[in-house]
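Final report, closing paragraph on structural work. Over the funding period we assembled a curated collection of sequence-structure pairs, and we close with a single example.
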Amino acid sequence: MFLGVEWYWWLLIVALLVISIPFKIRFMKWWSRRQQERRESQGGKWGADE
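Its predicted structure, as stored:
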C-alpha cells in the first residue's frame, strides 16, 4: 500500500495515463491546426491582409 492506495490501483492509474498521452497529443495537434485555420480565415475579414 502506497499513500493509502493498493498497488493495483496505482497500476490502473499508470495504465490510464499511458493510454491517454497519445490522445492528448492528437488533440493538441488538431487544436493547433484549427486555431491556425481560424486565424487565416479571419485575416481578410478586417482588411489586415495586404
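The helical segments are 7-43. The two ends are 65 Å apart (CA to CA). We thank the funder for supporting this effort.
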